Amino acid sequence: MPGTELNIIYEDNHIVAVEKQAGTLIQQDSSGEPSLLDHVRGYIQKRYNKPGNVFCGLVHRLDRQVSGVVVFAKTSKAAQRLHDEFTGRAVTKIYTALVENGGTLERGRWIEREDLLVRKRGYSERADDTSRNVRSASMRYMAVASNDRYVLLLVQLLTGRKHQIRAQLAAMGMPVVGDATYGSAEKLPGGAICLHAHYLEFAHPTKREPVRLVSPVPDRISSRLSADEDTLRRAIDSRDPA
What we know:
By secondary structure, the chain is an alpha+beta fold. It has a single domain (8-237), classed as Pseudouridine synthase. Helices cover 19% and strands 31% of the residues. It has helices at residues 36-47, 76-87, 164-171, 219-222, 229-237, and strands at residues 8-11, 15-20, 57-58, 67-73, 92-100, 111-120, 123-126, 135-146, 150-157, 195-203, 210-214. Strands 1, 2, 3, 4, 5, 6, 7, 8, 9, 10 and 11 form an eleven-stranded mixed sheet that branches. The chain is globular.
């Protein structure tokens, strides 16, 4: 990670949004591997010639196997306000997901789904009558393209449970391609899965104006099944307010 070029989607004095690659840690863990947070902090330090410790606030996360838009705060005020937006479900988060076994899905219509999920060691699953510590998980999804093997979905998160999209799609019999933890028959290099944080919309932490960020669908998805950017944009714009 260090020394590689950051793909910056948006930056101003308060926030910086970057494109996370699948397989990259958001935040350092016990492995000691470099993280995206480390890399962004180093970028800010070098770009603005800041000595010593540099503030870089992590306000949301993506699973290691997932790619897409990640926003970091450059000031403590921005970090607190963005944290409040994300925890208050005031942020629009839309993913592209390439799934298996979804051939019967109707295309071009947003469908809302709610499941009760329970967290197990390392994964989440749909709860049954014996489950404890159950949490409600809601999302919307739309099929935007399909072929004889795959369906490409847009998925809007309405809640933010651990592994929520992965678990809910698997519960529908449509695991994300490459996601062996949730039943995919395929394996992708580097442990990546075909789930991508494509669109993020939130209020700017100081200007309070809407910020809309897009990360193009990556090759590991589009090489199997693609939808043009105009189709995706129209589908995103067609959703009802949450």
